[in-house]
Design a protein that fits this description.
The strands form five sheets. The protein has an eight-stranded parallel beta sheet. Strands 2-3-1-12 form a four-stranded mixed beta sheet. It is globular. The chain is built from 19 helices and 19 strands. With 479 residues, the chain is an alpha/beta fold.
Amino acid sequence: MRPELKYLSDQELKRVHQKALDMLWDMGMQFENSEARDYFAKAGAVVEGDIVKIPGDIVEKALETVPKRDKFILYGRTPEHDVKVSENVPSLAAMTMATNVIDIDTGERRPATDRDLEMITRLMERLDTITSASALVTPQNVPMDVSDWYTWAISIKNTTKHITGGAVGKEGVQDAIKMAGLAAGSEEEFLKRPFISFWVLTMPPLRVDENTANVLMEASRYKVPTVISSGGILGITSPMSVESALIHTHAEILACIALSQLVQPGAPVIYSSFVRTLDMKTLCVAMSSPESILMRACMGQLGWYLGLPTEMPMNLRDGKLLDAQAGFETGMGGAIGALSCDFLVSMQLDMDLTVDYADLVYSNECMRQLIRLVRPLHFDDETLAYENMVEVGHGKTFLETDHTIFNYQEEIWQPQIIERNTWESWSERGKKDIRQVAFEKATQMYHELENTEILPEDVRRAIDAIAENSAEKAKNIKR
């Protein structure tokens, strides 16, 4: 059995869930989108202006039709990258929308470009623990009102793994699906195995804006997955209480799940949250504070309580560089996340603002260790090795036995960049710290992948054309 970390007892899970249902009925959810309000009204909710008071039975019916974790498959464009959530150990999912990178040539922080996104995506394609190669950076050298279109185009052209991204309104969803259809061979083929999903972000407390509802409804119509996420900030958009934050955050996610199922029963969703704290001295968001980590672990537990696949930003760091602070934040969030959710959102530094090429290699290595950490124990004849004990006897060594020779590589995790040698050996190889080693590996991969393409030129051009023709659509979308 896969080990789990539980902050909340069964009784506490039920209480949080019930209080969230109470909140949706007593206070309601603000939906600025009239079409969303109409769906709820027809289902029996009470609509007062733009406030929708949602009875518990609407939510419970939605939880009956939404696909459950034990049957959920997160598709890659190619089958080898499919993730069967019930069978797979935790994996990395790339966060989105960082605006800066550490330049691979100069080492200086600068605005991210479309070329950065292209190369970062190609690197993620090669790293084995990353199952969702979403756009880690938003290019700053493209028009900002259509950056989502360019981000989708670049991502789809450069990976065969799953991609999660944002969209502007239903038009953005439709165009991302068109691009994915070109890569899949046709829209019909894509919809059989939808290898993209859309972020749906509530606006705490208890609000969903016009565009977000349109994205959720349009993706649900196509049965393309949505990653539904709520991220209050304690003391700003959430009460100054971890326990209270869990209740309204859970309520917001439940309201969006309900809408998705009213639009299209069986529409797949992933349960997510980026609830976090604010440093009251600096007034900066703290993505890796102990409270932020434990709240997301609790949210992961709530998602599993509902039987849903979960994705939590457990490995985001406040550290500016890949240093001791970032290392501790990776270890703390990563270990807790590996024990409490399915996908660990990762690979950004500086409060989600900066990406370091070296960090992709580093995070992959860390995830490989975490996968070993949560591997279940199986007490069968092979693992008990009783005959091996009898063979060796008392006070002797197992070093040269067949059992050791045949099993050590599988039983003992083998590092790729972690340092385990002597001081003398390490000194002879240049006394490199972990960031230097990861950087060198990332640089080597970068140059190997500079001129690689995974789609034919005519398909790439057709995908680019959708992005290039998006300006008029973006201009006409109500913001």
